[in-house]
Write a structure and sequence with these properties.
alpha/beta, three-stranded parallel β-sheet, 8 strands
């Protein structure tokens, strides 16, 4: 039977030394056990503390080198997609990215919406329970990663919400409803009436974090940035620009407008350039520094979002 902690063929001593300490819990070894093994391998008689302190010094050096490399990076982006709440990974799965991420991108299919899918299911989580769990997961994830900026997109699972409502509601009523569960979680907020205990709970929108941001003093620090993807006729009107101005009033920030790249078989269209420029001008004239992100690769379906759209076609 192979012993997991045995030295491998041609394994350098330094690599073996590091492997033993980094996996000592898995190998069920104490520091004294490791010292005995290393002494036997190297022919020395060092005490346990000597080896343990040497490994601690190695770890500090490794962390220093990592931080030095990170300082060279201007914008560290961590993108997560397909969390599919309630089937999500635990927050701790992303421990390597906490505190070092500038931009957190939540790139679609955050909620699974399994209860309202057309596929057979062996068990069912109610849409309300899933909504509440998704909201809490996003709050915990953002708090855990602690990014300077958060970008949220939606995917086909998120859109199940509107598709389900479209089958159940008159078209006039459908106009009053959100497109995805994310809109309730992030923008609108929602109420839950628990009939079992007769309690009504209001879940405020995560968007209210903007109000909290306004309470902080960013003097001497980088300003807050927002990303805004524009869809023709959906969120690119003067009314939408004015709503952004009202929401961000009093907050020193930067708005980056993103041109939506048309994806085959996707119902939304790209906002015309003149509309995007007018939108940008309206925000700039209202005191919000606004830019338009450069777009490249659209002619070969390689721009942002288009590769995935073509792959899933």
């Amino acid at each position: 039977m192979e012993v997991l902690y045995a030295r491998r063929f041609d394994e350098p001593f330094d690599d073996y030394f590091v492997r033993l300490f980094e996996n000592k819990d898995e190998y069920n070894l104490s520091c004294q056990d490791i010292a005995d093994i290393l002494n036997s391998e190297s022919g020395v008689t060092y005490g346990e503390s000597k080896w343990r302190k040497e490994y601690a010094a190695f770890r500090r050096g490794m962390q220093y080198e990592r931080q030095k490399e990170l300082r060279k990076i201007k914008n560290r982006i961590f993108s997560i997609s397909d969390t599919h709440v309630p089937y999500q990974l635990p927050i701790s799965a992303f421990s390597d990215y906490g505190g070092i991420t500038d931009t957190l991108v939540l790139n679609g299919d955050i909620a699974d919406c399994q209860a309202i899918s057309k596929f057979p299911k062996t068990y069912r989580v109610s849409p309300m329970k899933e909504l509440i769990e998704t909201r809490q997961y996003l709050i915990d994830l953002i708090k855990y990663i602690s990014p300077a900026k958060v970008v949220i997109n939606y995917g086909n699972h998120d859109i199940r919400f509107q598709q389900y409502l479209a089958k159940s509601l008159d078209s006039d009523l459908l106009e009053l409803m959100p497109k995805t569960a994310l809109e309730l979680i992030v923008v609108d907020g929602f109420h839950h009436y628990d009939k079992a205990i007769g309690a009504k709970t209001y879940y405020s929108p995560i968007q209210e974090v903007i109000d909290l941001i306004k309470q902080y003093d960013f003097t001497g620090q980088r300003r807050v940035s927002f990303e805004y993807t524009m869809f023709a006729g959906f969120n690119d009107t003067k009314a939408h620009a004015d709503a952004l101005v009202r929401m961000l009033k009093g907050l020193e920030c930067r708005m980056n407008l993103i041109r939506f790249h048309k994806i085959p078989d996707f119902p939304y269209e790209t906002s015309p350039d003149v509309i995007i420029e007018n939108f940008k001008t309206r925000l700039n004239n209202s005191g919000i520094m606004t830019t338009v992100r450069a777009s490249r690769g659209e002619d070969i379906l390689a721009a942002c979002g288009m590769l995935a759209g073509e792959h899933n076609k």
